[in-house]
TrEMBL record:
Taxonomic lineage from the root: Bacteria, Pseudomonadati, Pseudomonadota, Betaproteobacteria, Rhodocyclales
Residues making up the signal peptide according to the UniProt record: none
CDD domains: AAT_like (cd00609), WHTH_GntR (cd07377)
Pfam families associated with the record: Aminotran_1_2 (PF00155), GntR (PF00392)
Record bears the keyword Transcription regulation: yes
Name listed for the protein in its UniProt record: GntR family transcriptional regulator
One example GO MF annotation: pyridoxal phosphate binding
Native organism: Azonexus hydrophilus
Keyword Transcription regulation in annotation: yes
Family: In the C-terminal section; belongs to the class-I pyridoxal-phosphate-dependent aminotransferase family.
Length: 470
């Protein structure tokens, strides 16, 4: 073995042993030269070799770092198989009972739906908001009524354009967060008693919205990595009067699945053939770990059937409650729904975020956020692999901030939730993501919070609780 290969092998062992962890910075070329009494060329060759093996990555002007996404030891869950037929929803009380139990700030938030506040530029956003409030024109209380602030809608349209989608600001309706957007979309295309298609598992807020509107749902199987089954969806469209599809195509909550670009085009073609609108909840699209963003569905929406719902809550401004719908042919219906539902979204917040998008360095913030989330994902994966028992399966996402775990068959996730909560740890049990309360031995874990000793201990404790039930 040559000297540079020997240096590479030593470094690789430090990574595999966990001494060097994902996101850690390697010694600079100069420091490595001094440490090993070798030439810069030898160090550079060693680092190039490690980079070619996918173990480290170079960051401009920063040096070399251990890559966040190394190999996976645990197998991934299989395609889901929800019970067939339409379902009358009765889930809200059950979901609220689970969610109300994890509000304590002293709880380790592995079950949280939110990332850590420290990941976001609240100080800078606060300055933009204060400036917007100081120069607020009273006339804007009228001009910024739905569809919303003109400059904000223009800035959002520019972000669509950067993703290859030509979206007119006229079809964008600003909302008080993505949840309001989803409700407005459902109201625009359904009536009580109608049937909609959802993924299985699915985000519980979509179940709650559907229940509130008196809708029935049909659950479509999905794969935790590849997303919704298109063959099962086509069968459902052929057999049932589906009025709309409510899907998360990019880094779905709870599984983290990503529908590949080719399959996304196939999905849109299928819905076009049946003339069924797609309500896409796309709040995690900016949180991709790869350099290339996933295909934006609006780039393929020639018929205006896609109601693309997103917000700044997950990628920039949690708590500001500002989202939007790129509504296609349904823009006017959703604008009217917005006027009658909540009248308007906070005008100072609209102005502040429009200014931030122009001058605040949003893309720079996103690059840092993605890197931190990828590092935190790798840390949580490593902890689960270390502490959870044999029989555990793990779906590893390519973005977002959730891990989906399938536990050994004898483990009851609801019991596990109660046992963990008593020890100061929250988890999101699988049944809250199902209209029929399936996934009784599944968990969603949040990696949107930085690694810490408390998190490491919490994962170890969860592993022991799972093993005790196995």
């Amino acid at each position: 073995m040559s000297l540079y290969q020997d240096i590479a092998a030593q470094t690789e062992k430090l990574i595999s042993d966990g001494v060097l962890r994902p996101g850690d910075r390697l010694p600079s070329v100069r420091k490595a030269c001094r440490t090993h009494a070798i030439s810069p060329i030898t160090v550079t060759q060693a680092y190039y070799l490690l980079e070619s093996r996918g173990l480290i990555e170079a960051r401009p002007k920063s040096g070399y770092f251990v890559r966040a996404r190394l190999g996976q030891k645990l197998p991934e869950p299989m395609m889901t198989h929800p019970a067939g037929g339409a379902t009358e929803l009765q889930v809200s009380d059950f979901i609220f009972q689970i969610l109300d139990s994890v509000r304590d700030p002293g709880i380790v938030p592995l079950g949280s739906s939110f990332p850590a506040a420290g990941l976001f530029p609240f100080d800078k956003l606060g300055r933009f908001l204060a400036n917007a409030a100081r120069r607020l024109d009273p006339q804007s209380t009228l001009s910024d009524l739905p569809p919303g602030n003109e400059e904000l809608r223009r800035q959002i349209a520019l972000r669509y354009l950067a993703q290859g989608a030509s979206v007119s600001p006229q079809e964008i309706v600003v909302t008080a967060g993505a949840m309001e957007g989803l409700n407005l979309c459902l109201q625009a295309v359904t009536r009580p008693g109608d049937l909609i298609a959802i993924e299985s598992p699915t985000f519980y807020a979509g179940l709650q919205a559907s229940e509130r509107l008196g809708l029935r749902v049909i659950e479509i199987p999905s794969h935790p990595r590849e997303g919704v089954s298109l063959s099962a969806l086509e069968e459902a469209l052929r057999q049932h009067p589906v009025k709309a599809c409510l899907f998360m195509l990019n880094f779905a909550n709870p599984t983290g699945s990503l529908l590949a670009d080719a399959r996304k085009r196939e999905l849109l073609g299928l819905l076009r053939r049946y003339q069924v609108p797609l309500i896409e909840d796309d709040v995690y699209a900016e949180l991709h770990f790869d350099r290339q963003a996933p295909l934006c569905s609006k780039a393929e929406d020639g018929d205006g059937l896609v109601m693309h719902v997103s917000s700044f809550s997950k990628c920039l401004a949690p708590g500001y409650r500002l989202g939007w719908v790129a509504a296609g042919r349904y823009a006017e219906a959703i604008r009217r729904q917005k006027l009658s539902f909540s009248l308007a979204t906070s005008v100072p917040v609209q102005i502040a975020l429009a200014d931030y998008l122009r001058h605040g360095g949003f893309d720079s913030h996103l690059r840092q956020l993605r890197r931190k989330l990828a590092e935190q994902e790798a840390g949580l994966v490593a902890a689960v692999e270390q502490h959870f028992p044999e029989g555990t399966r793990l779906a590893r996402p390519q973005g977002g901030y959730f891990l989906w775990l399938e536990l050994p068959p004898r483990v009851d996730a609801l019991r596990l939730h109660k046992e963990a909560l008593a020890l100061g740890i929250s988890v999101a049990p699988g049944p809250i993501f199902s209209a029929k309360r399936e996934f009784r031995h599944h968990l969603r874990l949040n990696f949107g919070h930085p690694d810490s000793e408390a998190r490491q201990q919490a994962v170890a404790t969860l592993g022991r609780l799972v093993a005790a039930q196995s």
